[in-house]
Amino acid sequence: MDKQKKTLLILAVLLGVALLGLLGAKKLADKKEKADAIDSAEESIQVYSVDADDVTKVAYYNNGAQVTLTKTDDQWQDADGVILDDDKVKTMLSYLTTIKASDVIEDTDDISQYGFSSATNEVTVTTKDSETTFTIGMQNAITDKYYLMVNYDESKVYVIDSSMLTACGYSTSDLMPDES
Known about the structure:
This protein is of the alpha+beta class and 180 residues long. It folds into 2 domains: 1-43; 45-175, Dna Ligase, domain 1 (2-Layer Sandwich). The protein is 32% helix and 32% strand. The protein has 3 helices and 10 strands. An 8-stranded antiparallel β-sheet has the order 4-3-2-7-8-9-10-6. A two-stranded antiparallel ribbon has the order 1-5. The longest helix has 42 residues, at 2-43. The protein is elongated. The relative contact order is 0.16.
């Protein structure tokens, strides 16, 4: 019996040590994750921010077709006057109303190296006070990020994620109310 108790006690101690190690590793991973999140937040560069309720018009290309959305009397409609689903438009706008970059390249000599010479991805966001045009350049094959120019200002090229392209992925039919 003494040998069984001793073995059981050793196993219990080993189990306790393993659990403490596991908890310590989890705590360390959580700390690293929080530190990474803080670093990421500090490193992001605010490119554009506007309240979605202030947006009155959005224009962009989807699969080569111009998509123009206009808000009239608090209702969104397409270029043909078809009423769109407000919640779907707000979801699409969430990708356009706050744009952050991970980096900015200043004093560029040749913007064509970022894919702006043949850029077909333009997004124009209009509010009651301003109109802002974003030109999306090519994707960087190494980082999977995209290049962005604001209001044709060639002195700054921003490096962004794919959120703006997600917004441009909405066709007019995607934004129509669901049939019940």
